[in-house]
Amino acid sequence: MSLILSILKSSDTIKDMPITKSAKKALRQSKKRRQRNLRRLKAMKDIIKKIRKLVEANKKEEALKLLPQAYKAIDKAAKTNIIKKNTAARKKSRITKLIAKTSPAKPPEQP
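^ thats the sequence. predicted structure below, dont judge the formating
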C-alpha cells in the first residue's frame, strides 16, 4: 500500500491530470486560449522585428508600409489582454519614433 502511495506522490503527471468533466474541459479551453495568445504575441513581435531590421538597413519607405500592420497586431494583442493598453501605446510610440528618426537612403551624388 505504501508503495502505491509513494508512486502516486512522486508522479507529476497523475497529479496534474484533471479528474472531473468540467476540469477536463477547462484544460482543453486553456490550451486553445494559450495557443491563440501565443500566435497573436508572435505575430506582433515578428512584425516589430521586421520593422527594426528595415530601419537598421535604412529602408524607411518599406518600414512605413509595414507600420499599419504593426499597429493592427499591437492593437489586437491589447484588445485581447495579451499585453496591457499602456504597453501597446508605448510600443506604437517607440516604433513610430524609430522610423521617424531614420533618414531615407540618399541616392549617390553625380559629379
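The helical segments are 2-10, 12-16, 21-56, 60-79, 85-101.
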